[in-house]
């Protein structure tokens, strides 16, 4: 199994993942559990509307670790602030959630981060492309 296959299979299998961000003020590692989503052929992190520490950390320190079934992948978070892009992505995610509330409230107030693999390095040392494939 290649790193690509292993990473992709873990992403497909696991909706709940752990991430380790760097604290925006402390500079210390902060590990937490979060749900990842797939929309528009890419992978995303989001949450219900409101302020989130993990999001503030990614805004300050975009590189973080994505922990997937024994795989630790260094990735970069791209915060999505453009209203049209937020509407497109969240328009795919929110309808799949029974408890989500209105799409409009998510577009207006939810954190939204694209998980970017481009140029990131898997723990095996292999460089990854944007979609998580071997570059």
TrEMBL record:
SUPFAM superfamilies xrefs: FMN-binding split barrel
Pfam family, one: F420H2_quin_red
Single GO MF annotation: oxidoreductase activity
InterPro entries: F420H2_quin_Rdtase, Split_barrel_FMN-bd
The organism's place on the tree of life at top rank: Bacteria
Designated name of the protein: Nitroreductase/quinone reductase family protein
Species whose genome carries this gene: Micromonospora profundi
């Amino acid at each position: 199994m290649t790193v690509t296959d292993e990473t992709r299979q873990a992403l497909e299998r696991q909706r709940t993942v752990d991430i380790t961000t760097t604290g925006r003020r402390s500079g210390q590692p902060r590990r937490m559990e979060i749900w990842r989503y797939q929309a528009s052929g890419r992978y995303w992190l989001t949450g219900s509307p409101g302020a989130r520490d993990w999001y503030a950390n990614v805004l300050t320190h975009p590189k973080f670790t994505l922990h997937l079934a024994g795989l630790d992948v260094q990735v970069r978070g791209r915060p999505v602030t453009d209203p049209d892009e937020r509407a497109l992505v969240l328009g795919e995610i929110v309808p799949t959630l029974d408890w989500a509330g209105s799409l409009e409230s998510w577009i207006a107030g939810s954190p939204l981060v694209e998980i970017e693999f481009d140029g990131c390095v898997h723990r095996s040392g292999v460089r990854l492309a944007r979609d998580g494939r071997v570059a």
